[in-house]
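Minutes, methods subgroup
Present: GH (chair), OT, SY

1. OT presented the first of two proteins processed in the latest run. Sequence and structure tokens recorded below as shown on screen.
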Amino acid sequence: MKYTYAKYKYSDKIKLLRMVAVVIVAISLLIIGFVRTFNNNENAGTSFKVFAGIVLVACFLLVLVVGFLEIYKQTELGKIYPIIAITLGLIFVFLVPAFETPDEQDHFGSAYNQSNVYLDYGSPYDDNAAPAGFTPYRYMRAQDASVGEANIKSRINTTNYESLLDNLRIIDEGEAAKVVAVDYSSNSKMTLYYLPALGITFARFLNLGFGFEYIFGAILNMLFYVLMTTYAIRKIPVGKRILFMVSLLPITLQQVSSYSYDCAVMACIMVVAAQAFFLKCGDTSTRHKWHWNVEIPFIRTTLTELAMYIFCGLLLSSVKSGVFLVVLLLPFVLSIKKSWFVGNAKKISIPIIVVLVIGTGVFVYLRGYEMVYTFLHAVPVNVREIYGQMGVAPIEYLTNPVRFMGLIFNTLKEDLGHYIAQIGGTALGYSRIFVFKGVYIINLLMLLVSMVRYDTEDDEYKVGNRILTFIVGIIPILITAFAMLLYWTLPTDNVIMGFQGRYIVPTLAIIMLSIGRWKKIRIPNIDNLFAMGITLTSYLTCISVLSYV
């Protein structure tokens, strides 16, 4: 199936009227943003006021640019996405202050450690003499670097922004070196931190302050995400709007514009999903538009697609014990056909599946039985101690299913609404950056509308494919919830502790692709509505954040 971008003809008068409406809305939001931000932050420092002004003007210009491209050029989502994503990504690097993204101090520490490897500085945060041409690392504010969740206030304020903005400077060579160690506990492989570490290294090489070091690393992380998701959105033949919306949600922008490895995880999952649906229902003739796309006949793919798939697999294997590797199965499960199990084909396919199942069972019994038994009957060695108590062994839940089901029921009853609101963008950071309620409701509505199948899409997506796709998307979320059940939930808790809405976002697009797009409807210029809609809601998100700090 070839994706067709439907363009509708409008008279010049209609185009002008639509553009005038966009300009009026943009100006109105600009005025509202300035009035609310400066009236609510009269005592803010100069750096915050300059920053707020730049953000509001940048959002204003982005609305005008997107309006022009959609009204006069009718630019498709895959081409307009990088413009919107890079602009909003740069804004979110500053909009969510340093170390406000959950666990970011750990990720920053890992990236800084990798920077030390680049510079051959020795041990992490070592203040010993550096190689010729480099100066010791003069670091950051200790209170920001070592802050723990217990010390975090209920709401951020303008000083959280000013402390970073005031550090956008060149370090005085005569200034005494101050090195503050930042403990990091991330056990992920350093492959996830190569790019942000390069940004930190570049700033260190130029002898820049912490502000530049943080920003350069975060920007490289964000640009990697935009590059990968642009490829995915342009590659996938169906569900482009789903990928477009998920990749521009406030919670997504927060994660990918920080040092979190969620950036790499979400980017790779987007690419694998796009490749899977392209192999399922894409127009393979588009492969030959690039001379390096040499097709491999046996597996019906190309060297470019295979290289991207392997690259994503390597990155996904580096995080959270490889729980996201299940996503790599998506291209295979979408290729399953009924013809495999009828006629002569079943003489080959069925024995292969039986051998794989039996082989896995034998391997687990012979090589992993003791490990599985230990895991079920005792809390794992690496379980974290919470408030002086240890987590609950899995066997306790297996032998007490009533408590287990009660925890699930109570969690869904009390926290499901909070998870959904987090996905829409109700609160950012450590839930200390608040957004207008109407904004995340609009985001959620656009997410739902993005699952509709429109008249330009004519692919066949059968129930069996939907079920397998849903399973692939839900497994990482269930594993994460189970980990929270073991590592964070105490015997006295009535709900599963530690689980957050952001844990759903990485595979959210896959789940939406599995349950959406049933019936075709006709809505003129639907892609234009999505592009303008997410741009305007992002504008409102920025106004909301700046006016409530």
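2. SY then presented the second protein from the same run.
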Amino acid sequence: MEHYTNRELSWLEFNERVLMEACNPDNPVFEQMKFLSIVSSNLDEFFMIRVGSLRDLVLSGAKGKDPSGMKPQEQLRALTARIRTQVKRQYKIMNEYLLPALARCGVRMARPESLTREQALYLEDYFTREVYPVLTPMAVDAGHHFPLLLSKSLNLAVLLSGKNGKKNDFATVQVPNVLPRVVFLPTQSGEKTFLLLEQVITMNIHRLFPGRQVLVCHPYRITRNADLTYDEDEAADLLQEIKKSLKKRKWGAVVRLECNPDMDKRLLDILRKALDVDDEKLFKVDGPLNLDFFMKQLSGLEGFDQERFPSYTATIDPDMESSDIFAAIRQKDRFFYHPYDSFEPIVRFVRDAARDDQVMAIKQTLYRVSGHSPIVAALAEAAERGKQVTVLLEVKARFDEENNIHWGHELEKAGCHVVYGLPGLKTHSKITLVIRREDGHIRRYTHLGTGNYNDVTARLYTDMGILTAREEIGEDAGNFFNMVTGYSETPGMHFLVAAPKELRPELMRLIRRETDHAKAGRKAGIEAKMNSLLDPDIIAALYEAGQAGVKIDLTVRGICSLQAGIPGFSENITVRSIVGRFLEHARIFHFYNDGESETYLSSADWMPRNLDRRIELMFPVLDPQVRERVMGVLHLQQLDTAKAWMLHGTEWTPLRDECSGERLNSQERLVPYGKTVEETSPEMENHD
């Protein structure tokens, strides 16, 4: 397809935008540290899923081209080169910018050779007490096969002098993940000085091999293919099939070996042979392997609040704190823009429904939930109180499969009817239906949203949702649940539009309607916000609309295969990406329609998987006040000059470089400052 950017290369451009936040002076240094860590975790997942699936295609002999015209092997070569450049820049930022900045704040990474005597004695004692008992050195020789190493585990490769003049021996030691990776040292100055656990073990590695001479010891890390494959058509029990596949994820083929540039060649040759690693899979990095310790241990250090984003407490509409939440919803549609608006009213909606004697049934879809989900607890309580509770729990939500299986079993024990997804489709819609008897009649209350029912990510991701008592919406919601839990065909809907059957044609109709308006000389325009824009048919329709004169303004956080601003082709299309404190996750679609504008929210991005292989929902914003607030957010982000990047063809440039005056940060404009909240940063490449 002409003017279509490869998906994987576009994702790497997104990860580059995240990386640039790690050296953005507008961000406090502890926030820069988080962004640097996020880049690493993003790349881990990218290798496990995207690179892993491409390698599978190459091994299968697939020669087909993606919509950008690239074959799998061509994509792998291009990705490998791009990733090497990105990782080199990541470690340059860490070594030359971030570590010195942290040192100025009083957090210093020590060098083993520069320890004081007091620190050396402390580490010797710490190793003896805490580390040594946990370690298990594993010899590799004729009688001991190379161990099956866990994906993403950190290990030490050790070369030992041979016995009686024989050849040298090899051993490997896993750095235990049950111990903190950051080991703080005693200091006289009060600074936070630390070494990493692998450094502590390396300093004492000789103690694991008494009677032998340790020649060299170097850390290494592997990443395995984690792209699950299972035959849904042949599986008699989808849940059991996924459980079986999850066990295989830990032991997939190695897709990446990470080590330091100075690793001894003898060790590297042994590892490459044992792990089947060619040059394309080998990545040498100038620093610690895996930078997640910045997020997991250093970012939460006490006493450094001035080096973080200011804290706040999300707002709650007083009406939603009233004794009768259902009366508040009957009064008018209630709109939420998380994390600026608290997620607590959504939790309370389900919890109050569980405890309300007039509530007869609760139906809900769940895609990703938190580890201690109050939503799940409320659903279980409702079932235990005798209410009819139906939960469509998506068991194929990547990397949350085990968590969702666990919660599914807990809900079943409580008496809920649990449907573990549908064969061939992922249920990605976000909808809750509460059925209540009032004055002898049935009334339905519905929550529709763009984000997961997850109280943790609701503090980190920007998402929108609506609570409504509109009867037509409630009737649509009932029909929707009957469709996904039973055998009914897609029913006619008043307002809800469902994928995979209805959403694609409806979006194409809405885009083409704007095209027809423009061709007829009427006013036309499209404004949309989403995580990813990838679908070739949608992109082709947008190109056609832009060429017909439709002004198109898109906000796309992550992958964008559309190429904007190309003279004579897409000059009527602008695309921006906002990367900041919160992960932009809401999906908003607005069509001008010659003045009779329509605004929608959705769980779906404009990607083939969302439109063709998932159960998704798009729903209209019917209340004028809510529509005004939704569009206000969209327009505010179009004015962002602090965190916005603009797409010019295939190149992204930060608007902050072009702004000479005071910069507008759209996220900061919305934060309700002055209160306190605990928060951590999200992984920017969300598990949507």
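Chair's summary of item 2: The chain has a mean pLDDT of 91.
Next meeting: continue with the remaining queue.
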